[in-house]
């Protein structure tokens, strides 16, 4: 804690500012925001130690490295503070801003397990926040981040085990339980505090959001709760369970940035909406299963995890290529943010022997291999293809009518 506090002194901020501006050690320091490599760090450290206490230099170099790494999560990372574990566990800003938007204006939100403040900072832009964490350093870092980003006036920090805090002053709760204990990752599905404790919060405060790993099964959440799967691009980031007072649907897939949302009906039975603000499109007609057509759609992992592939098919007028496989197909180009559309060049029963010749004939030099429903060693296959052409293609290993099937596709531009 003392070492962190030193960073907040005038010498500490001066040193961090010098590192951020690339002026820490003169030429060759990597420029603003760049991570300093081990050799550079050594040279730089030696130079800075002549001007600042050694401990401060070590701490500042470590903090600078964390700031540079945090650039992928936070737009103002170079002004913020982190611990390594706190950064790893922090919600990316784009996700935190989205989840914060689920709370109503004026709500006082208790952010339980606030860590270094990824969620708290987004909440505090719109709400008064009671931020609780049992780790004094995380809480101190969260406070420093709130002050640096100008939302400190909206934040009250509380150093406590979340089990021991009263929630009388809160209108709503967001809880992001730890999925690691110290350096050790907890088993999949385990968290501290556990999910069961988090779910019980809804008995004390009606509006509750619980952040969880994206692998959380639907059955883990009681009826009446919404389970939202959030992806940034095609990267499935997290699941959030929303208590009945905040839920508007059964399951939801949200794509960020952009906020495209695909939902099941409130009863979770099948109709879908492209956007929560637009009317329902679908009806509960069964999704046809047919052989692949001219276009293939690989749904976003958030859609697949949310169990909304059939809803997406209905919305797009597409069909499934196999009852159990999450690829959709159509004979016209598929325009949707909810999946990656590919133009099918070849569609045939899986035949690995013919592939190298076919790829050579098509001048394909690199393939993105997607395997779904078909076993096989992708790296081994890639080696055997011996590619040498100039074009990029996608090779899909899958099943059609429960038979091993191969599709050769190009990006649908
Ligand atoms: C996943 S991190 C929170 C990340 C945070 N939402 C963010 O975006 O930066 C979990 C946090 O829970 C805290 N924690 C774990 N068990 C706790 C408990 N029983 N009471 C209070 N805090 C706890 C850890 O110290 C850690 O900072």
Automatic annotation (TrEMBL):
It comes from the Bacteria. Residues 339-409 form the THUMP-like domain. Pfam families: Methyltransf_15, Thump_like. Gene3D superfamilies: Vaccinia Virus protein VP39. The lineage of its organism: Bacteria, Bacillati, Actinomycetota, Actinomycetes, Frankiales. This is THUMP-like domain-containing protein. SUPFAM superfamilies: S-adenosyl-L-methionine-dependent methyltransferases (SSF53335). InterPro entries: RNA_cap_Gua-N2-MeTrfase, SAM-dependent_MTases_sf, Thump-like.
């Amino acid at each position: 804690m003392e070492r962190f506090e030193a960073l907040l002194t005038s010498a500490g901020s001066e040193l961090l500012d010098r590192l951020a501006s690339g002026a820490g050690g003169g030429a060759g320091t990597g420029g603003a925001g760049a991570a300093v490599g081990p050799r550079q760090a050594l040279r730089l450290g030696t130079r800075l130690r002549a001007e600042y206490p050694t401990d401060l230099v070590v701490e500042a170099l470590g903090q600078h490295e964390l700031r540079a790494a945090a650039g992928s999560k936070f737009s103002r990372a170079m002004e913020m503070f982190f611990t390594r574990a706190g950064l790893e566990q922090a919600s990316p800003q784009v996700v935190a801003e989205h989840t914060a938007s689920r709370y109503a204006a004026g709500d006082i939100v208790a952010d339980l397990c606030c860590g270094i403040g990824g969620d708290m900072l987004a909440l505090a832009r719109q709400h008064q926040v009671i931020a609780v964490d049992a780790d004094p350093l995380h809480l101190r870092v969260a406070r420093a981040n709130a002050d640096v980003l100008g939302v400190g006036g909206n934040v009250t920090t509380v150093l406590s085990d979340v089990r021991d805090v009263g929630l009388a002053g809160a209108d709503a709760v967001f809880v992001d339980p730890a999925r690691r204990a110290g350096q050790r990752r907890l088993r999949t599905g385990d968290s501290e505090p556990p999910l069961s404790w988090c779910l019980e919060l809804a008995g004390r405060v009606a509006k509750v959001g619980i952040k969880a790993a994206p692998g959380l099964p639907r059955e883990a959440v009681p009826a009446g709760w919404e389970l939202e799967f959030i992806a940034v691009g095609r990267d499935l980031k997290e699941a959030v369970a929303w208590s009945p007072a905040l839920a508007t649907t059964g399951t939801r897939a949200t794509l960020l940035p952009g906020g495209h949302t695909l939902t099941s009906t409130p009863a979770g039975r099948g109709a879908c909406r492209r956007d929560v603000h637009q009317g329902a499109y679908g009806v509960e007609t069964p999704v046809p299963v047919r052989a692949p057509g001219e276009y293939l759609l690989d749904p976003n992992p958030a859609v697949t995890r949310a169990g909304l592939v059939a809803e997406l098919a209905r919305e797009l007028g597409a069909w499934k290529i196999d009852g159990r496989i999450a690829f959709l197909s159509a004979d016209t180009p598929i325009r949707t943010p909810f999946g990656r559309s590919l133009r099918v060049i070849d569609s045939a029963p899986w035949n690995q022997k013919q592939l190298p010749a076919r790829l050579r004939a098509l001048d394909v030099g690199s393939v993105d291999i997607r395997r779904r429903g078909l076993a096989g060693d992708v790296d081994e296959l890639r080696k055997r293809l011996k590619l040498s052409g100039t074009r990029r293609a996608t090779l899909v290993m899958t099943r059609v009518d429960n038979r091993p099937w191969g599709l050769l596709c190009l990006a649908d531009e």
